[in-house]
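Sample 3 of the quickstart, ligand succinic acid:
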Amino acid sequence: MSAAHALPRHLADAVPTGLLVDGEWRPAAGGATFAVEDPATGQVLAEVADAGPADGLDALAAAHAAQPAWRTVAPRERAELLRAVFETLVARTEDLAALITAEGGKPIAESRAEVAYAAEFVRWYSEQAVRINGLTRTAPSGTNRQIVLRRPVGPAFLITPWNFPIAMITRKVAPALAAGCAVVVKPSELTPLTTGVFAEIVRAELERRELPTGVVNVVPTSAAGALTEPLLADPRLRKLSFTGSTEVGRVLLRGAAQNVLRTSMELGGNAPFLVFDDADVPAAVEGAVAAKMRNSGQTCVAANRFLVHERVAAEFTAGLTEAFGRLVVGPGADPATTVGPLIEERAAARVAEVVQQAVDGGARVTVGGDRPSGPGSFYRPTVLTGVDPGARAVREEIFGPVAPVVTFGSEDEGLDLANSTDFGLVAYAYTRDVDRAFRVAERVDAGMVGLNRGMVSDASAPFGGVKQSGIGREGGEAGIEEYLESVYVAL
Ligand code: SIN
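Result:
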């Protein structure tokens, strides 16, 4: 099967639109397909095979069958496979970026940056595959030795979101393969095309090296629950890794409890962006644009609440209003665009609702606050001031280009506001005082802290949250641990 409709011919020919099961691209068992749309135009880009529960179980059977062979492949060979995939991803940046923009709406420059970010996970874990360390020591009693062996946890089910259609896949697939785990990937039904190209790159490389091709299986579906339930109930599955909302994460955790799966959960956020009265305000404005506007605000690490000291609030708000006013809203494929569409119509409608609710509660719009006319799920970059701390714009993850500003009067008050949420993925803080910077990093409820920086993501760093933002870490040395277990041997 290949893609059709509004994709440029050279891309359409290169995009597999089937299911990848046991090294073969195939249609769904029932022959069903679903449509993938361009959020900038609403046009259908392709019809993709729609996996059902039986297809999911076939994919798990393939991963389970490939597992014993894959875990015994030498770490160096696993590393070299990943290195080759990294090289191909870099070489195919333009095609992949065009696809990310087509199905996800991201401005093309951001899509190129996503491919680089995605490739970096593959390179990092190609380097980690040969550095999986156990431990040996004499027991404290001196009576024997203690040895800790590391081994792959087993077949892993990886559920990935639409906001980074390739980086969130490589962040899971690369450490899983490096650790020796076979995988089943369920990409978002909104962005399965990029996944298809990535999966074909890995499949072709496995085949070329005569390695088991059933190690990577991909099952796009429009019915995630129906596909997921039997997989979680199947004892052949040993690991679940999910990136998405806390609400869905909770459901998956309940399912994962049946077979007591190892789980990694990268869930929702509600990131505070603190600007203290000693901050470099123009730098904070620049950081705020970066922390808010990546992928039009549709990232888990997007700054959600701008908590600004009352002494610098006017300067910060004026700077942010001007900066947002300069952003160019449009289709991601246009190189002039800096803010693309939201992923789908209902996302744009939800953002409009959140803004309206804040305005009804007394907030003032200093820029934006509406949708441009014409097709596509666009929303204009928006700054809100005088926002009630109880407003949805402050309590919920906005997932759109909207910045609510709330003021505070003291460091303690700022930190209390920052921590007044069930989430704790990331926090940002701008201050020139090093002691204060460390106090914030130590006291804020977050798994990651950006100090005088609007961007924390890095393939070599442990990404993840506290509280209801998740379990486990992805990236860095920690990311591969999620796919390994320890076996203690007393000798
Ligand atoms: C996410 O939004 O889930 C990931 C963002 C990132 O890795 O920077």
